[in-house]
Amino acid sequence: MEVDQKLDACGLACPLPLLKAKQALNKLDSGLVLEVTCTDPGSVRDFEVFARQSGNELLRQNESEGQYTHWLKKA
Predict the structure, then answer these.
(1) What is the distance between the terminal CA atoms of the chain, rounded to a whole angstrom?
(2) Could you say which of 17, 29, 40, 50 is the most buried, measured as most Cβ atoms within 10 Å of its Cβ?
(3) 0.90 exceeded by pTM
């Protein structure tokens, strides 16, 4: 998957990973992909809800050894 910007939100607690992702998405052009890496297990649900409500596309989510990665495509 081609990623246009990466955001490291590891160590941040809810809702900071999502807030940082929103800020990063606001700076991206439509159609670009943001990769967010964080350690907050609640981020899985947060990003699913955010994608539904914002119109941005949640392309994929992955969990590996307590690290959660989310790929969002800007609407």
Answers:
(1) 17
(2) 17
(3) yes
